[in-house]
Write a structure and sequence with these properties.
mainly alpha; 7 helices; elongated; disordered N terminus
Amino acid sequence: MNDFDFYKPNTHPDSLVTDITYLYIVSIILWIFLVYILDLISTDLISFIILLIPIIMYLITIYTIEDSDRDLEKEFLQSDILAFSVIIITVILNLEKNRYSPFFSKLMTVGLILLMFSFIDFWVNKCEYLYVRHIKSILRIAAMTIFAYVLYVYHILDVKHYGHTVNPLKENKNILI
């Protein structure tokens, strides 16, 4: 008997694990397709790593879903993104109008649409609600990754345009006084 067998009664049935695994495999394929459609493939190493985040997160879920605890899963899949959304909207409003603005606007729009879809409530029975929670998680991970990508690429362009970044605290030690 394994030391962790006492957790088994609170895990998911095999058929549900299989279905959720397929859901994440399809999500990986759709994410790769979305990256291709949005023309995000030709990027630097950090951008590429950012774009790998959903695939890594989805693979971790595939790997751990069989042993995941239903009660713990409720904690992970209930997230409040309102504060993050306010930050994103602030960034959108402050984007400078430059030749890259349509590109950033397109990405931010796709991210916001994915995020908004994750807020849609589906009224399904208790067994199917787990699928809905995983779909919401998939959409939120994709949206957050797009936002992170936009912020990083925008920062890189800003540095190329204005020069190297300077820490204002090191440049002017009296800034906080």
